[in-house]
Design goal:
13 helices, mainly alpha, single chain
Length: 358
């Protein structure tokens, strides 16, 4: 596992899940294109969250900790995503994805035992919510009932990582307490939503607003955005993502829990695209080189896919709120194109960077 070429297949499975999820998402939003196989449309969410992001986050931890058994997490998650893409029926895909998330939860438990702190605790809770969401999905819960568990996984994992990086700032106790309270609200809303979906979603959304405000106020990106080059680009990605999380929180407070329709689309994608994909754009120049062992050469052209992501998401949310299917469709199409542009430019920059002799 010490060489990038051994990690490439796991990253490849994650990216394949991403591409299949984008295709399924385009069809779900109204584009009349072939679905490849009949069940693909129904697994858009699991492919994006568990098959892609779950595998990617697990792989990042495997690279950092270098323990051979931990590779089971990206292996199970990656294979589970492939099973869903191939349309193999039964529970094989969900079981593999669940096993991958359980191993990931074990990884974060070990991290928490080695270094007990608020940031590692948040990330461990995030991994637990992923595993719990997958178990509930495996037990037959519908995706609209499970999606808040998956959302919590990503939110707490990212927020915990940002808190970990922010240790250098030596936050005062009141700032740490504010982070804790936002986390408690998110978890309280998550549990409440299992019994009272609308009210639970509102509590959850209040937590999103609180965490968004915390990150916008306290994250180190507020400082690095004043720098030049890659640090500024990453900071712009992060800060814009925090804004989208806050918008998602506002929409959740206003509309409560939804199970389908345009508002449901807006509630999900302000967070999953606006927040999470912005985080990926910002962290990719660090994550991909660490996984593959290839440097990335930063270019200001990176702002192109970031700008397209935000413009297209605004278009999509406007279409959702105005119940305009054509506007929503074009917004969704451009969302996917922004992600494909990001992948292409990142690959080209890594090829360019690999030619640089250090």
């Amino acid at each position: 596992m010490g060489q990038g070429r051994y990690r490439a297949p796991f990253l490849g499975m994650a990216l394949f899940a991403l591409l299949a999820a984008i295709w399924a998402g385009w069809i779900r939003i109204g584009w009349r294109w072939p679905p490849i196989q009949p069940t693909l449309l129904g697994v858009h969410g699991p492919l994006m969250v568990v098959g892609f992001l779950g595998t990617l986050i697990a792989l990042e931890r495997v690279v950092a900790l270098q323990r051979s058994w931990m590779v089971l997490s990206p292996l199970f998650s990656g294979l589970g995503g492939l099973i869903l893409i191939l349309g193999i029926g039964g529970l094989v895909g969900p079981v593999l994805l669940t096993l991958g998330s359980l191993v990931l939860a074990a990884i974060f438990y070990i991290i928490l035992r080695q270094h007990t702190a608020l940031d590692t605790g948040a990330m461990a809770l995030g991994a637990f919510t992923l595993a719990m969401g997958n178990i509930l999905w495996l037990l037959g819960w519908s995706i609209p009932r499970v999606v808040l568990w998956w959302e919590t996984f990503l939110i707490l994992t990212i927020a915990g990582e940002r808190l970990e990086i922010g240790r250098l700032l030596r936050f005062p106790k009141r700032v740490v307490l504010a982070f804790s309270l936002a986390t408690v609200l998110i978890l309280l809303g998550l549990v409440t939503a299992a019994f009272a979906h609308s009210w639970g979603t509102r509590v959850f959304s209040l937590g999103l607003l609180a965490l968004s405000a915390w990150l916008l106020t306290n994250d180190i990106a507020r400082r690095t955005v004043r720098q030049q080059g890659l640090p500024r680009y990453a900071a712009v990605c992060l800060l814009s993502g925090y804004l989208w999380m806050g918008i998602g929180g506002l929409l959740g407070l206003l509309y409560g829990g939804q199970a389908a329709g345009p508002i449901y689309d807006a509630l999900l994608h302000t967070v999953f695209i606006g927040f999470v994909i912005s985080m990926i754009f910002g962290h990719a120049p660090i994550i991909f080189p660490s996984i593959l062992g290839l440097p990335i050469r930063y270019s200001p052209i990176f702002y192109t896919h970031l700008a397209l992501l935000h413009i297209s998401l605004i278009l999509r949310i406007v279409g959702d709120l105005a119940t305009s299917a054509p506007i929503r469709q074009w917004g969704g199409l451009l969302n996917g194109i922004a992600i494909l542009m990001f992948l292409s430019l990142t690959a080209l920059s890594m090829m360019d960077g690999s030619r640089i002799k250090v």
